[in-house]
Amino acid sequence: MVKQLIKDMLVEGLAPDAVTYSMLINMYAKLGDLEEAERVLKQMTASGFVPDVAVFDSLIKGYSAEGQINKVLKLIHEMRAKNVALDPKIISTIIRLPEQTPLLWSATTASVPHSHGPSILQSAPPSLTPVHHYHVALTSRAL
């Protein structure tokens, strides 16, 4: 489907840009089609675009909803490697993971080297203080 959409765009003289790819990734992640979202991500990077925080946010939310904690952790570390800072939405998603899938979270974090857990929130920008982290978590739970 994505290939056809992009092919149609090219026929019409329109080249997909970072926003187009980001919107497609978000759409597929919300639909739960994470394989297709990953395909679009690969095509995005192959086209020379660098995924931004919105792309990672979409994928992290999608994998969180599916309980795929290892994928969430992988994406967070990929963000760090690409110098993409965590934003309040992603931090909120991470904070809610243990309550969404407590047994899976315990098993996953027990099998992951100890340095991963604390390092996740260390990726947050300096402007986000611990108080801000808690505010984000509480606000997101109230919505």
Automatic annotation (TrEMBL):
PPR repeats by residue range: 17-51, 52-86
Gene3D superfamilies recorded: Tetratricopeptide repeat domain (1.25.40.10)
Entry's family note: Belongs to the PPR family. P subfamily.
Alphabetized InterPro entries for the sequence: PPR_rpt, TPR-like_helical_dom_sf
Keyword Transit peptide: yes
Keywords assigned by UniProt, alphabetized: Repeat, Transit peptide
Keyword match Repeat: yes
Superkingdom, taxonomy of origin: Eukaryota
Protein name as it appears in the record: Pentatricopeptide repeat-containing protein
